[in-house]
Amino acid sequence: MDEYKVSEISQNKCVICRGQIEVKTHVRNGRLEIYWDKGNNAQPVSEGQCCDVCNESVVLPARMARLGGF
Ligand SMILES: [Zn+2]
Predict the structure, then answer these.
(1) Is the pTM of this model over 0.85?
(2) What's the start-to-end Cα distance of the chain, in Å?
């Protein structure tokens, strides 16, 4: 299998689901620019970055649980 590169897409992988981390884009001067490709902090579930889906479904609940004293 050939390796392929997509320069516009983040090379960062989610540490939880191993999926691609979404990039955040905006339009500036008529061009689409990436302004954030670092994902979300996966702490306390894991070390590194995670995608939006895991952040909402796994990391945030875990964080809430910790704050709740469980
Ligand atoms: Zn993920």
Answers:
(1) no
(2) 46
CA of 63 to the centre of ligand 1 (A): 16
Ligand 1 mean position to 21 CA, how many Å? 7
Instruction: Assign 43 to helix, strand or coil.
Output: coil
DSSP 26: E
On whether the CB atoms of residues 8 and 23 are closer than 8 A, the answer is yes
Q: What pLDDT score does 43 carry?
A: 95
CA dihedral of 57, 59, 64, 69, whole degrees rounded to 10: 130
Cβ proximity of 56 and 64 under 8 Å: no
